[in-house]
Amino acid sequence: MKLRLITKDASDPNNEIYLDAVQFFLKKLLGDSEYDHVNRVDIKTDAIMGSWGECFTRTLINGKITVRIKFRQNLNFIENLRTLAHECVHAAQFITKKLRITRKAGHWYWINRNYGINPYNGLTVDEIYSKLPWEKEAMSLEDSLAKEYLDYYCRNN
After folding, report:
1. Which candidate, 99, 76, 132, 77, places its Cα nearest to that of 29?
2. How many CB atoms are located within 10 Å of the residue 22 CB?
3. Do 28 and 1 meet the contact criterion of CB atoms below 8 Å apart?
4. Burial of 56 (C-beta count, 10 Å sphere; 0-12/13-18/19+)
5. From CA 88, how far away is CA 86, in angstroms rounded?
6. Residues paired with 30 in a beta bridge
7. Which candidate, 132, 52, 126, 114, places its Cα nearest to that of 87?
8. pTM reported for the whole predicted model
9. Residue 63: left if φ>0, alpha if ψ -120 to 50, beta else—which one?
10. Partners of 55 in the β-ladder
11. 71 neighbors 86 (Cβ within 8 angstroms)
């Protein structure tokens, strides 16, 4: 799967680690399967945003998707890895089509159950992670994925 890093600071020594971590997380989550409908996964390292991170897709004219993972600036390294792990779970959900957002109407579907146009609307942070199944899954995996990556990185570098 092609990865592309988008950053304002090309000299950040962690950029290479972020790319490696995303590759590691996606391999753990997706295995060796080929997903021909995926054009590329973009990782934006220093987004200005309210949440820690986000993941979404764009459908190209040829029908393939580009997955975009963003995380905000001013997080520490461990928070960045945890956020990347969390967002990679969402990337895998989109890639495997467990999670879909319809293009025209903007309805969110989790394993073919419709959660409406904006399922986050009106929910507290705690409710988001307890009521939305794709967020529950991402939250339940982020720490173990990040720890597994750190163990892998320390053994191999």
Report:
1. 99
2. 24
3. no
4. middle
5. 5
6. none
7. 52
8. 0.95
9. left
10. 69
11. no
